[in-house]
Specification:
The chain is α+β, with helices and mostly antiparallel strands and about 425 residues long. The chain contains 13 helices and 23 strands. A hairpin with a 3-residue loop joins strand 13 and strand 14. The mean pLDDT is about 95. It binds adenosine monophosphate and glycine.
């Protein structure tokens, strides 16, 4: 590296990593950006390298050989499996942006997260953790709840481990099925939760373990169909800011949730470093934690990054020094909306390798790639269910949305589908 510039390796291959790469690439403090494995979009902002984020030895070797200064971990799997601890022990002088294995349990184990919140009086739904040993207690707990019933696999289940069921008998049957391995080992413990009625939002912070910076608040839209109907997906779009996350609400989020979480982690002797994603439910003006994630959200990052005006690299570099607290985060006051273009059939079976056209004609939006690859003849091809995230700014949410729709008119691939009502439930 040159005196004041750094080399960064970003792990991941989705829309979130494309938005992070877009943001990092704008920094004058960046010497080189590598993305592993990346996609056709991230290749515009840096060098894609064929590494498996779960192969820690391979990642460590690459960091050593290429004198990487900073590793940013995009998704939860490597963090929950302990990539931060591994790199700390195997690569000298590498700064890892992401919590260690202990802290990543906030996402990796719902039972751990629930116990942590209970201990630190952080508002969340009432719950009971159930294993094969206390199945009867679990069945009785279900009987005491009102429908709908919320069952969560304790461990990571690729976003599929949460069931919300209206019928009590069905909920009991599902509890038994989960304990018998419906989600493999991830559901050997099941968290039964009280159902919270309200509206959700995603709050993001970046922390050095002591202090924190609030990033723009966003809301994502997970269902495949308009009006939030149909199957769950990895996310069909997002909006930032969120109208109900006003100053009064965010004051409660800071004092009741963010600060006790960061302080609570200090109390374990293992400070949390990296991004924290608080999935919150607004219940009549009071925030409750639905889930913690130990990384940024997707597709929220595709609206959060565009709203950060200040350089991200100095902020990340300041982690670990006293400069972090005084490094500013400047937020763009405009709205950002992203609309996800997905493959027909998704989230069930869908076809890949469809030719994508028209991206060159998009002028008023930023197109982040989620599931794309470069074909042998240089053509851009679909390679996943979620293909492109089309992000636009606007002085209002509707203006931003209209801009994305105008841009989408230029883009085409066979059986392309998207929702036209992103942000419909917000003012
Ligand atoms: P998760 O995988 O934890 O994000 O859960 C998936 C979705 O289930 C959340 O985004 C919520 O929409 C919903 N959900 C989870 N827990 C609850 C709860 N206790 N009450 C109501 N909805 C919930
Ligand atoms: N958008 C939700 C997530 O990233 O988990």
């Amino acid at each position: 590296m040159t005196e004041d510039k750094i080399k960064i390796l970003l792990l991941g291959s989705g829309g979130r990593e494309c938005a992070l790469a877009w943001k990092l690439a704008q920094s004058p403090e960046l010497d080189q950006l590598f993305i592993a494995p990346g996609n056709a979009g991230t290749a515009q902002y840096g060098t894609n390298v064929a590494l498996n984020p779960m192969d820690f030895e391979q990642v460590a070797q690459f960091c050593t050989e290429n004198r990487v200064d900073m590793l940013i971990v995009g998704s939860e799997d490597p963090l929950v499996a302990g990539i931060t601890d591994y790199m700390d022990n195997h690569v000298q002088g590498l700064k890892v942006i992401g919590p260690n294995k202990y802290c990543a349990q906030l996402e990796g184990s719902k039972d751990f997260a629930k116990q942590f919140m209970q201990k630190h009086h952080i508002p969340t739904a009432a719950h009971l953790s159930v294993t094969a040993q206390n199945l009867d207690e679990g069945l009785r707990f279900l009987e005491q709840q009102q429908a709908p019933y919320v069952l969560k696999a304790d461990g990571l289940a690729a976003g599929k481990g949460v069931l919300i069921i209206n019928d009590l008998d069905e909920a009991k049957a599902e509890l038994r099925a989960m304990l018998k391995g419906k989600f493999g080992n991830a559901s050997a413990t099941v968290v039964i939760e009280q159902f919270l009625k309200g509206i959700e939002c995603s709050v993001f912070v970046i922390t050095d373990g002591k202090t924190y910076k609030l990033l723009p608040v966003a809301k994502d839209y997970k269902r495949i169909g308009e009006n939030d109907e149909g199957l769950n997906t990895g996310g069909m779009g997002a909006v930032s800011p969120v109208s109900f996350a006003d100053e009064a609400f965010m004051d409660k989020v800071r004092t009741r949730i963010i600060e006790p979480t960061i302080e609570g982690m200090q109390g374990t002797g293992s400070a949390y470093v990296g991004f924290i994603f608080f999935g919150l439910m607004n219940v009549n003006g009071d925030p409750y934690v639905i889930e913690y994630n130990c990384r940024m959200g997707d597709p929220e990052t595709e609206v959060v990054m565009p709203r950060i005006k200040s350089d991200l690299v100095p902020l990340l570099r300041a982690i670990g020094s006293s400069a972090f607290g005084s490094t500013p985060v400047v937020i763009d006051p405009r709205y950002a909306v992203t609309v996800m273009l997905v493959s027909g059939g998704y989230p069930q079976s869908y076809e890949k390798n469809k030719v994508i056209t028209g991206l060159d004609e998009v002028e008023d939006s930023i197109v982040f790639h989620a599931g794309t690859k470069c074909g042998e003849d240089g053509k851009l091809l679909t390679s996943g269910g979620r293909v492109l995230a089309v992000t636009s700014y606007g002085d209002t949410k509707d203006e931003a949305l209209a801009r994305s729709f105008e841009s989408i008119k230029h883009i085409n691939f066979d059986k392309m589908y998207y929702r036209r009502d992103i942000g419909f439930d917000l003012k």
